[in-house]
Design brief:
Layout lengths: L2 E4 L3 E6 L12 E7 L9 E8 L2 H12 L5 H4 L5 E7 L1 E5 L4 E8 L47 E2 L14 E2 L16 E6 L6 E4 L1 H9 L7 E5 L12 E5 L10 E6 L19 E6 L4 E2 L4 E10 L22 E7 L5 E3 L9 E2 L4 E6 L7 E11 L2 E5 L4 E4 L3
């Protein structure tokens, strides 16, 4: 197993047109450019903040990936990576190319309990102007709009909206983390017909956070071009938040390579014949989110050679070739939850069989899932999808 997902502890959207409004419990987070009148565009923007548990991040890095302060492992691009995933709810008004940027937040912020256009407006958390309690008279509760520390910045346009909109790191100022070699930002550009889901590589941001080079205050996501004074250009990107009532909350996905092939003294052969029969062993079918399970694979030719032996040739097990991988899809939506990955989902092998491990915590509970096996056998790449089903339940 080399994929592990964490879910957010908090998120909120900052709206320039409603600079005191908190949206910490809204079902949507958005990075949107909007004009509110055709004759007088009055362009406005929104950005969203999202954060994850620092303890959970450190636990994955130290106890699952095995970094434990080892700099060579921390900086090894071939060993592990982290992706920030956000799933699109609505997208409108996009141009041929739209770029979304992600930076690490500077400054602790309160999520609050507001929703978009609450009446009365909620001000008990972060907003465009305020970092913590909106409306506080304490200057330290506001986002910085001047005199930034080295390596910290902000962006706003006071022609159209108050100064604010969050603060973020642009680089590291400590000698033990070189942000020129490991830039602490991420971005993605998509065309009109591309998927609008975000899958941002934030590995370097997590590296900087782990070393203490930056504070653990989460991510800010924004469009590259903001405050667009053109009523014909209003790109809106709305994503499901942690408070969504769907199966699409944001996630921080850790992927790492834990591939091992140690057959020991086993005399099992590698399967090199098609057609083949592949079955899944050690699958109870129902798991709790806290579960961790090792799935073993039974593989054999569909029509094995007849040889003299005291047991049936149909009981002879085979290893799958080294170019074999696993994936998980949601049975209801048919969407890939964890896709095939040549680094992160390669099958392992020991003296008993080919196998792989799954942490169930990254899967939405009360859902049915299917396991897919992809293997290059005798020069033919084949995907086996033979009702390898299981369910994750609350408990």
């Amino acid at each position: 197993m080399a994929v592990y997902k964490l879910f957010p502890t908090k998120d909120a959207t900052l709206y320039s047109i409603l600079p005191n409004m908190n949206t910490g419990l809204d079902e949507i987070i958005e990075a949107t450019e909007t004009s509110f009148a055709h004759a007088d565009p009055n362009p406005q923007t929104s950005r969203f903040l999202i954060n994850f548990s620092e303890d959970e991040i450190d636990d994955v890095l130290d106890n699952k990936i095995g970094i434990n302060g080892t700099s060579s492992k921390l900086l090894d691009n071939n060993l592990w990576k982290v992706n920030l995933q956000c799933f699109i709810a609505t997208s409108t008004g996009l141009q041929s190319n739209t770029t979304v940027e992600c930076y690490p937040v500077y400054g602790n912020w309160d999520m609050g309990t507001g929703r978009y256009l609450d009446e009365p407006e909620q001000t008990n958390g972060t907003s465009w102007i305020w970092r913590t309690f909106s409306g506080s008279v304490a200057a330290q509760s506001k986002w910085l709009i001047a005199s930034y520390p080295t390596g910290v910045t902000a962006s706003f346009n006071t022609t159209y909206a108050p100064a604010g909109g969050g603060n973020w790191f642009t680089g590291s100022t400590v000698p033990y983390f070189n942000s020129n070699l490991y830039p602490i930002s991420a971005s993605t550009t998509f065309g009109f017909y591309d998927t609008k889901d975000l899958n941002l590589d934030v590995t370097n941001i997590i590296r900087a956070r782990y070393t203490g080079a930056i504070s653990p205050d989460g991510f800010i996501i924004k469009q590259e071009i903001e405050f667009i004074n053109d009523q014909e250009v209003q790109p809106e990107l709305k994503y499901f938040s942690r408070d969504t009532h769907t199966i699409y909350p944001p996630a921080l996905q850790f992927s790492w390579r834990d591939y091992t092939w140690n057959s020991g003294s086993s005399s099992m052969e590698i399967l090199d014949t098609l057609p083949a029969t592949i079955t899944l062993a050690q699958n109870p079918g129902v798991f709790y989110p806290q579960s961790y399970n090792r799935f073993r694979i039974n593989a054999r030719p569909e029509y094995p050679l007849q040889i003299w032996q005291t047991s049936s040739v149909y009981t002879n097990n085979y290893y799958l070739p080294t170019s074999s991988y696993w994936a998980i899809k949601d049975l209801d939506t048919n969407e890939m939850v964890i896709d095939f990955d040549t680094q992160a989902t390669q099958l392992n092998a020991d003296s008993s069989s080919s196998y792989f491990d799954i942490y169930m915590n990254g899967l939405e509970p009360e859902r049915y899932y299917a396991i897919l096996i992809k293997s290059d056998i005798a020069g033919t790449v084949q995907i086996f999808d033979d009702q390898y089903y299981f369910k994750v339940i609350n408990g």
